[in-house]
Amino acid sequence: MNTDPIADYLTRVRNAIKANHRVVEIPASNLKKEITKVLFDKGYIANYKFEENGPQGIIKVALKYHPVTKISAIRTISRVSKPGLRKYAGTANMPRVLNGLGIAILSTSKGVMTDKEARAQNVGGEVLCFVY
């Protein structure tokens, strides 16, 4: 049993980037699927596929690298809100990652979105992770 599945997701992606893997397989959940969609929409991963084999399913994430320098599109991916200490942000104190160059992924009442989208829709929520 895993106590923090989101941290496990981020660690699997981080380890795959360090090992220069092209594809990483992650056990699926609805929240992980939404985080994967946000990463794809913002251009941090090349592609993804949801496979429904077994009771849980698998997310296959194709990581994105620069064609010449082979540097990953994701430089840093870190967990913010942990099960032991949840971090919430309202619209007034929404975090800015690298002064707007990175993204913060939030879980809001209107779904999983980036900090910029949450500011535009005027909603706050739990800050899941920072990506840049």
Automatic annotation (TrEMBL):
GO terms for biological process: translation. InterPro entries: Ribosomal_uS8, Ribosomal_uS8_CS, Ribosomal_uS8_sf. One of its GO terms (cellular component) is cytoplasm. Pfam families: Ribosomal_S8. The keyword Transcription regulation does not apply. One of its GO terms (molecular function) is structural constituent of ribosome. Signal peptide: none annotated. Keywords: Ribonucleoprotein, Ribosomal protein, RNA-binding, rRNA-binding. Part of the 30S ribosomal subunit. Contacts proteins S5 and S12. Belongs to the universal ribosomal protein uS8 family. One of the primary rRNA binding proteins, it binds directly to 16S rRNA central domain where it helps coordinate assembly of the platform of the 30S subunit. This is Small ribosomal subunit protein uS8. It comes from Mucilaginibacter agri. The lineage of its organism: Bacteria, Pseudomonadati, Bacteroidota, Sphingobacteriia, Sphingobacteriales. The gene is rpsH.
